[in-house]
């Protein structure tokens, strides 16, 4: 537990101070709505065990106020419960109120109803917007104050943030942007919360706001005020996924390099974005085209498992950094640039000194000579010497296990191998056939102006063509200017075609040939959004749905005739009948109207339902939706998000070789999963499941085959560990016993996990027997990599290491 009373939280130009003492603070982002309340204690506990001091989270305005002045803080939106769970584990909290958050979250966390307020302009000096922002921000601050959760009240919250990355876009708003950020600073101060306020990516942050850095590397960042400490609010541990995109990977070595280099160059607060990414449940994913998985290659994966070796490698780094907290925050700094990317930094006090040797060269290892000793610093690495004599840590030398996890079909007792499905069609007669809806306007509208309760909006109109119309003798097509989301076009109840784009595309043109008949022709267009934009200047005014024009185009020889339908009478219907009838809910009054016979496959707009028993055990559960097209899934009425396994990642861009951690990282480096479904497996939290019968409901938009759907569990099958000489190897099967030692070597072995091989030299003692005695039958074990245990070797001039592969 934290101390019951924190006298004060402040800062100087060196560090955040708590009770007057400068602190090295290591933080990690966990977003409460991207996991479940049942998962929070375990996630927070693993964060603490990983060496963190604090948890950082956004506050998600649109989740809490989906309808103006109607608030929701229940379930996984219980912000106060989340903060208290962090406090119970003895960690601090960094509360990023925003309330604009970006976060690859739908509309950047802003409620869509804001868009429709008369006279509103978002994120600028606009009275309508500022009144709403102040109302919500005040609500959050008052809630937190009431529970005495700010550090000034004895609670865990040591830092707060208002707005988010505004400096990246402020120029687009002109003078009103600067006036707005000044207003934000004044409002923050007026709350009198007793802790410092931060503004990330805000190089002109008004005093006393502390401006902070976000990015893959922030070692060269300098705050705009000499009295502000050097803070890194988002160290991107990987990257998000988009539909059609590949899987990002940021190596443990490079992430550790970025952290160590930041502290080498004067940083004292660093936060991982994300430490646990989680899942975009419901319709929360933004983008558009952000996937349901928000794993982010974080140290704790989407399902709550340790992402090894990243978690373990960073844990050791955190331990070493905390051990030199005093010289880092109080010592005199001496920095030497030795050229070719090699640097040496010393932090000295009267009592002790700590040294960093950094090598930013991407190919060449370096030698540093100090006090008659030589240290080898591998390319793209940082060595930390807490006493400037002994190397305690190097970012390129990973002394942590690698966990190889597998997905297993683990049915409950007496569960049949295949699921038994029922189905029912989505009723489209009134839209596709009859063009009936909720309202009519003589114009095309932005989808945001109609609703934000469904991805789906039907646009319906009719056009009459006479045989003497000049366009009649031409080859006809329908052309629709859209916004890059999904479009399905119907003419006279027949599907003309469908179109969708990829992440980052905000406009597109659909055109397909059509056959019209004399007289009235019914045109129905279904727009399916895949998350509203969440980032960029004026992102809120980026059109959604079908802004038009919508045209009938006639072509004959060199002549083109266009009939613009944009200002016809358009009728609109929000959402699906199945959504309105809550077919996904266990207590829907339409629950008995499902069909068991003649199960259709590859049929658009079809609802499927099945029952299943929860897989045995406690391992995380996923549902494999291979074979389906695109849609939405619910388990026991709980949305597990959008699915789209038919959207494959591009074929090219993946390397068959192991990722080289050396060199500057970005999200296009070290990608995997080329040519495979962007996301095939979907997280089903254990808290969503009942002990007895459970229900899975799918709405299939494109058409697919549910017979391939199956539930699986994720568990470690193999763990491989590596420890350099005189380091300690720790192995864990995370709750299950280590069943076997498949490989063990103390020497210069090589190869990857699953394909390890002995090298040219080896300790004389039998490494396998030693590891079997120390580890088999235990959930975890540790052993020192030394000649005292494994015997002498003939490895002259070669770095020795203990390498083990174990089965779980």
What would the keywords be for this entry?
808 residues; alpha+beta; TIM Barrel; Jelly Rolls; 41 strands
CATH class of the largest domain: Alpha Beta
Overall strand count = 41
Main beta-sheet strand count, sense and barrel state = 8 strands, parallel, barrel
> How many angstroms does the end-to-end distance come to?
34 Å
CATH topology of the largest domain: TIM Barrel
Structural class: alpha+beta
- What is the name of the CATH architecture of the largest domain? Alpha-Beta Barrel
**Strand order in space, largest sheet:** 4-5-6-7-8-9-10-11
Q: Which parts are unreliable, with pLDDT below 50 for 5 consecutive residues or more? A: none
Shape descriptor: globular
CATH superfamily of the largest domain: Glycosidases
Strand content: 25-35%
Q: C-alpha Rg, in Å?
A: 29 Å
Question: Number of helical runs?
Answer: 13
The tally of structural domains comes to 5
Helix content: 10-25%
Average pLDDT for all residues? 95
Task: Describe this protein's structure.
With 808 residues, this protein is of the alpha+beta class. It folds into five domains: 9-307, Glycosidases (TIM Barrel, Alpha-Beta Barrel); 332-398; 405-419 and 579-644 and 679-714, Sandwich (Jelly Rolls); 429-575, Jelly Rolls; 725-807, Jelly Rolls (Sandwich), CATH 2.60.120.740. It is built from 13 helices and 41 strands. The protein has an eight-stranded parallel β-barrel with strand order 4-5-6-7-8-9-10-11, surrounded by four helices. Strands 19, 32, 35, 37, 39 and 41 form a six-stranded antiparallel beta sheet that branches. A hairpin with a 2-residue loop joins strand 28 and strand 29 (559-564). Helix 7 (252-264) packs parallel to helix 8. It is globular.
């Amino acid at each position: 537990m934290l101390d019951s009373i924190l006298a004060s939280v402040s800062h100087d130009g060196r560090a955040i101070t708590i009770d007057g003492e400068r602190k090295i603070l290591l933080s990690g982002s966990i977003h409460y709505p991207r996991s479940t309340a049942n998962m929070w204690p375990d996630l927070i506990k693993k964060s603490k065990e990983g060496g963190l001091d604090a948890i950082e989270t956004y506050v998600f305005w649109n989740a809490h106020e989906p309808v103006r002045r109607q608030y929701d803080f229940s379930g996984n939106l219980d912000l106060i419960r989340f903060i208290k769970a962090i406090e119970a584990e003895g960690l601090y909290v960094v509360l990023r109120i925003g309330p604009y958050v970006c976060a690859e979250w739908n509309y950047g966390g802003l409620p869509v109803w804001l868009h429709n307020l008369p006279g509103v302009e978002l994120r600028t000096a606009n009275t309508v917007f500022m009144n709403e922002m102040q109302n919500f921000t005040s609500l959050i601050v008052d809630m937190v104050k009431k529970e005495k959760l700010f550090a000034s009240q004895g609670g865990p919250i040591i830092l707060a943030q208002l707005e988010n990355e505004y400096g990246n876009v402020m120029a687009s708003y002109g003078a009103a942007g600067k006036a707005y950020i000044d207003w934000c600073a004044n409002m923050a101060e007026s709350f009198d919360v007793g802790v410092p306020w931060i503004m990330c990516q805000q190089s002109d942050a008004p005093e006393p706001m502390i401006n902070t850095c976000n990015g893959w590397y922030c070692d060269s960042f300098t705050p705009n005020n000499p009295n502000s400490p050097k803070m890194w609010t988002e160290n991107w541990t990987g990257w998000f996924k988009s539909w059609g995109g590949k899987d990002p990977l940021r190596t443990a070595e490079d992430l550790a390099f970025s952290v160590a280099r930041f502290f080498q160059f004067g940083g004292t607060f660093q936060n991982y974005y994300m430490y646990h990414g989680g899942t975009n449940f419901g319709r929360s994913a933004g983008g558009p085209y952000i996937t349901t998985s928000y794993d982010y290659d974080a140290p704790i994966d989407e399902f709550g498992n340790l992402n090894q070796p990243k978690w373990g490698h960073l844990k050791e780094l955190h331990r070493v950094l905390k051990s030199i907290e005093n010289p880092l925050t109080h010592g005199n700094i001496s920095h030497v640039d030795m050229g070719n990317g090699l640097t040496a930094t010393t932090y000295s006090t009267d009592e002790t000194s700590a040294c960093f040797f950094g090598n930013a060269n991407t190919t060449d290892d370096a030698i540093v000579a100090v006090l008659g000793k030589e240290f080898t610093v591998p390319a793209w690495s940082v060595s930390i010497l807490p006493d400037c004599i002994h190397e305690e840590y190097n970012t390129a030398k990973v002394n942590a296990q690698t966990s190889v996890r597998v997905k297993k079909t683990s049915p409950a007792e007496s569960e049949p191998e295949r699921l038994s499905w029922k189905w029912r069609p989505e009723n489209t007669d009134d839209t596709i056939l009859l063009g009936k809806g909720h309202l009519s306007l003589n114009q095309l509208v932005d989808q945001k102006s109609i609703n934000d309760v469904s991805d789906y909006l039907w646009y319906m109109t009719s056009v009459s063509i006479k045989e003497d119309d000049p366009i009649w003798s031409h080859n006809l097509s329908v052309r629709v200017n859209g916004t890059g989301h999904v479009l399905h076009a119907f003419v006279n109840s027949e599907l003309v075609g469908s179109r969708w784009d990829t992440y980052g595309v905000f406009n597109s043109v659909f055109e397909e040939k059509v056959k019209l008949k004399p007289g009235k022709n019914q045109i129905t267009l279904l727009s399916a959004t895949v998350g509203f934009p969440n980032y960029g200047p004026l992102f809120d005014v980026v059109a959604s749905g079908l802004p038009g024009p919508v045209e009938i185009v006639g072509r004959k020889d060199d002549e083109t005739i266009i009939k613009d339908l944009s200002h016809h009478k358009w009728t609109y219907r929000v959402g699906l009948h199945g959504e309105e009838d809550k077919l996904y809910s266990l207590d829907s009054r339409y629950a008995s109207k499902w069909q068991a016979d003649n199960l259709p496959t590859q049929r658009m707009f079809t609802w499927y339902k099945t029952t299943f028993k929860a897989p045995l055990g406690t391992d995380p559960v996923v549902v494999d939706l291979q074979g389906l097209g695109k849609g939405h899934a619910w388990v026991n009425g709980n949305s597990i998000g959008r699915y789209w396994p038919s959207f494959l990642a591009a074929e090219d861009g993946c390397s068959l070789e192991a990722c080289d951690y050396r060199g500057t990282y970005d999200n296009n480096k070290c990608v995997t999963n080329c040519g495979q479904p962007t996301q095939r497996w979907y997280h089903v939290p254990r808290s969503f499941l009942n002990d007895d019968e459970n229900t899975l409901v799918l709405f299939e938009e494109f058409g697919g085959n549910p017979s391939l759907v199956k539930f699986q569990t994720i568990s470690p099958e193999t763990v491989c560990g590596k420890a350099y000489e005189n380091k300690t190897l720790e192995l864990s099967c995370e709750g299950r016993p280590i069943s076997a030692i498949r490989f063990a070597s103390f020497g210069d072995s090589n190869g990857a996990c699953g394909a390890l091989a002995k090298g040219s030299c080896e300790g004389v003692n039998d490494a396998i027997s030693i590891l079997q005695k120390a580890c088999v039958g235990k959930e975890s074990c540790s052993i020192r990599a030394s000649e005292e245990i494994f015997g002498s070797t003939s490895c002259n001039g070669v770095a020795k290491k203990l390498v083990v592969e174990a089965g779980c």
